[in-house]
Batch of 2 targets.
Target 1
Amino acid sequence: MLHKNLIAGEWVTGDASANINPSNTNDVVGEYARGSVEDTKAAIAAAKAALPAWSRSPILERHALLKKTGDEILARKDELGRLLAREEGKTLPEAIGEVTRAAQIFDFFAGEVLRLSGEVLPSVRPGIGVEITREPVGVVGIITPWNFPIAIPAWKIAPALAYGNTVVLKPADLVPASAWALVDILHRAGAPAGVVNLVMGRGSIVGQTLLDSSDVHALTFTGSVGTGKRVALTSLEHNRKFQLEMGGKNPFVVLDDADLSVAVEAAANSSFFSTGQRCTASSRLIVTEGIHDRFVTALTERLKGLIVDDAMKSGTHIGPVVDESQLKQDVDYIGIGRSEGAKLTFGGERLQRETPGFYFEPALFTEATNDMRIAREEIFGPVAAVIRVRDYEEALAVANDTSFGLSSGIATTSLKHATHFKRNSEAGMVMVNLPTAGVDFHVPFGGRKGSSYGPREQGRYAAEFYTTVKTAYTLA
């Protein structure tokens, strides 16, 4: 079966592309259409045509669409989780958890539709009233990455629709299945023709066409730093609103007073689970001298107990890397770390399993310094480097010495240090005695510096991007 693109309420065919299971490259998840420039332009035109009616639609209509979508996602979480695990490679429990989160996001924004509000203020001029309202920004282009193939489309589509926008979704070419399933649910839940459009395919074709269109009024992007910069430059040419979530080199600080078991578990989860393929993953473990050796020993033992295998197998802790290209990048960084003088304390080898797949042993470097490439560049794999520091003050300085600023963490039993770190960490999200990866769906998500640009995603703060503010004056 060829899974087609959705344009103007109709399923439209295109050149077929095979979606391959990274746990078993002999397993084809499905055939998915790849859209053309013409397909993308048609989707943009459909979204533009649908905008006037949808932007003024009754709030109960929008509420019902989002609620029905969230309910079906949740009812099918096991099925959709299996699909996600097959196409992306994260373990089945993680995949089901991601699907559940997508359902929760739609449920949250279904509620937000009923909480739309504005302000009525007196003017400084007598006899004049002032109303401040939020209106849809317009046609929203959505470009999503491969590492969260249903959650990230959900957290962009749901608020866009809740606030009365129409959308054109371009999911990552590597993982179209989860996005297709999500759009199919929205379509059957009653999304009017043109309100939700799906164009799968290459970024150089579909993504570039979205960037080049003056009829795309806002563009939200999650992906690489290089592509994010292109999105920004092109959007400026069109005077378009844009939102970027790009990358991280997230620090996890371990102080001498930390509970060792808490620190090790948080570090292992941050750095290696989901195969390290999370922008919030911690790949810099900054550890003070008094606990350094015990921490490295305990974390190494924890890594020895992790099972790397087929994402669908019960008991698997870490699934495969997403594809051959990402696997090569991980292997290349092992060589880079060694050449820079870091010690490979554990892992870093390609693994063979019962089925052909992109299996990679989690890697832990020690004796690293913060000026090494493995400590400066985002690897996006299960590779972490331990950096030894003297004390809290040096740990904070090293943690902030990065061009990124998405997430950070600290393991400590000191209220003083925890409080100071929360205030002084140069990151958009800070975790105390918790993994740097793992966030709630109802609160803001986003970073600082080179990690993010524009208003935050998720929660009530999503309104800052998906709406525009209007101020109206009335003579009484």
Note: The first strand starts at residue 2 and ends at 3.
Target 2
Amino acid sequence: MSEPLKRTPLYPCYARFPEARCIDFGGWELPVQFAGIGKEHEAVRERAGLFDVSHMGEFIVAGKDAESFLQRLTTNDVAKLVDGQAQYTLLCYPDGGTVDDLLVYRLGEGRYMLVVNASNIDKDFDWLRQHLGSDDVTLENRSAATALLALQGPAAAAIMAGLTADSAVGALAPFRFADGVAVAGVRALVSRTGYTGEDGFELYAAAEDAPALWDALLAAGAPHGLAPVGLGARDTLRFEAKLPLYGQELSPAISPLEAGLGPFVKLDKGSFIGREALTAQKRDGLARKLVGVELLERGIPRAHYPVYADGRQIGEITTGTQSPTLKRNLGLALLETAYAAPGTPVEVDIRGKRLQAQVVPAPFYKRTAQGGAAQ
């Protein structure tokens, strides 16, 4: 008998949206859409969107050796963090494959919050626990007690300004956060982070406070065109910005360097798990790279579709769709490095038919300082 699907604290709120449709997402019953993927994608790019991402995992790592422990487990340089700063980083296996990608928040001296992918919560917690050794560190899984809402889009700052008297929130730089902020009367950690390629905030609050926070954000955002957004648009938004999804652009078989995440791998910081393998990859040259691909014929590249050149398979699509913003049939693909240069002709096999395509620059979408797309 299969396990019942898990639900976030906001699940009862979905019923207010007649067109909302939930799916099984890694054991969670989550909305793939509220009113339509295209409409929700457009709302985030042009106005603002609100996401329930409470299925994500949150761990507290604390103790005298917390910093050195995280330095040994993660690829980025935790020692560079100051209080109130977050960092994107990765956990790796000794062979350089990826355990997970995550955010590390420095809450204070010897105290950090890790935010991990929902499908990897148990695996990541076990991985951290296995590598404690003699470190003076405590690990606490706070996932069930923590809700996470993401407010994303050009109007996000204006919406937040109407909900909190804390002027520091609007002044937050990217990857900075403020803890204990009162947002519509709800205490939250507010972070200038997101997964859409747009400006925005992520709000961490107690699970029991999530419905009140959700309602307050939707009410304050209504004059700005704020829309609730499901998993479907979350995926198309992150795809256009070339933000990786674990299980597609990252996996135990795909290293951070192959995925184009070299800036988050600090090989010169000292020893960490996976460093020797990643150093060898960089020294010897990568055998394959994550690149953008555009179909030149009618069709849509989908995950795991084979990619060919010179009569043989040279890789496969990791994510693909018709870009809602750009109206182009695009994909991310892990290809042999010899075929990774923009303009290289390739073929994508779609149900036994090879369609003409070419390698193109990625990310496909970049937000400009004035808002909107730089294409």
Note: The chain has three domains: 11-53+145-240, 57-141, 287-362.
